[in-house]
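Homework help board

Subject: predicted structure for assignment chain

Our instructor gave us this sequence and asked us to write out the predicted structure in token form, then describe one feature. I got the tokens but I'm not sure how to describe them. Can anyone check?
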Amino acid sequence: MKTLILSIFVVIFLAACAAPQPPVTPEPTVAPVVIKHKLEIPREFRAAWVATVANIDWPSRPGLSTEEQQAEAISLLDSAVILNLNAIVLQVRPQCDALYQSELEPWSYFLTGEQGKAPEPYYDPLTFWVEESHKRGLELHTWFNPYRAHHPNGQKNETSIISTRPEIVREIDNGYFWLDPSLQATQDYSYDVVMDVVKRYDIDGVHFDDYFYPYSSIEFPDSVGYQAYLGNGGTLERHDWRRDAVNVFIKRVYTGIKAEKNWVKFGLSPFGIWRPGNPPSIKGYDQYDKLFADAKLWLNEGWVDYWTPQLYWPTRKIPQSYPVLLGWWVGQNTHNRNVWPGLFTSKIKDEATALENFSQIMITRGMLPDGPGNVHFSMKALQRNYGGISDILLKGPYTKPVLVPTSPWLDNQPPAAPLVEIDPREGNVYINWFHENKDDVNQWVVYFQRGKKWDYKILTSEKEAYTLPLVVRSEDGMTPPEVLDTIAVTAIDRLGNESERIYIPVR
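My token output:
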């Protein structure tokens, strides 16, 4: 006979037990469930960048057929699932182009081999990536380069922004072209591109990397704009004027995303050093003075939901030490945003450098115990198991799937608990559940106890049933069999909030 356990029944039952009762001999009844070893599911952001610029990760070369592109995407996503990752950061705008259907920018050369040409037969790659990621329980974050207009490995033709909007484009060195960040027209243009994707696609995040003003040996060609600014009464020094333009844009993007879809997270992965001397032992490139990126300000002001500084150096390299830099960034996190550093996994050459990546993950966990995470550059390195890194992760920190940490400043209200029904028969326990508001559910977690051991299974939102064997016997036949004692099912919403957990005895 099926046993239906409803949350309302539990509340009534417990209230009745607490109320004063006359002194009568009670009828035999089922004792309340007492849980002494409740399992708390781990939280960690485990992600990888999928770079499309110069075909670093996907597609493997320009001009693949639709079938080949999709097959490669599925292979990358399946590898992510095998590795127990829970998010992908997909580059959708490498050079003022689009790896999705856009009315604002041309189809990417890196996708089809011809700038402005759609895939044949037609499909929308971003729709495909979003749907296939979500089927696998992976978040999909869209990665934009806000200012790069042309990469030397790309293609210039009549569809390129160099031709269509030359007034906002500047030529720099080594074959690169850049949008002028100081121009209002540039800010409006890139903002519209980002918001177009936020509005039309079911994405989980928007992501910028470290490219603001370019890494370049020449002075950025904006003298005319700066002189016009001074002529109109502007008083900022030229470098401050550049930084101010980027600051205004970052804040605008964050505010715009929150106004449109509050649950879409905005993440930034700046160069890992803010300025040399911060903290005192740190030496290296000065992004504040070279890229005109005041990354510290953006984190201090809370204009992000997660922070992924590119900490691409070993732990024992004193001028750029991973734990020293991470500790400094954590100290700048005045709004308690999620901090999930970037790791240079593609630089792994052997087991020793793979173990360095492993150590960095453990350092992150130690410094950020309540919501750790890392983003690997890039997915190709994990898929190809550079230096055995994937084996090391699966045997160590990524042994089991986990949930993404919450973002309580966006939403801290958990969804309602599901209504759960169990049906023990024929050596199995069949679990079914129902939720009053499926739109508020992104994942399910099934918890189960055998003796003193707890375990869990994370399921995607379309699942509403799961089956567990009543008895699990050891392979050697020497260990006593483990019998299923208790189960619970919880709902997880889009931002990781978990519902109440109501425990159900199996026997």
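Reply (TA_rk): Your tokens look well-formed. For the description, you could write something like this. The chain has 14 helices and 21 strands. That's the kind of observation they're looking for.
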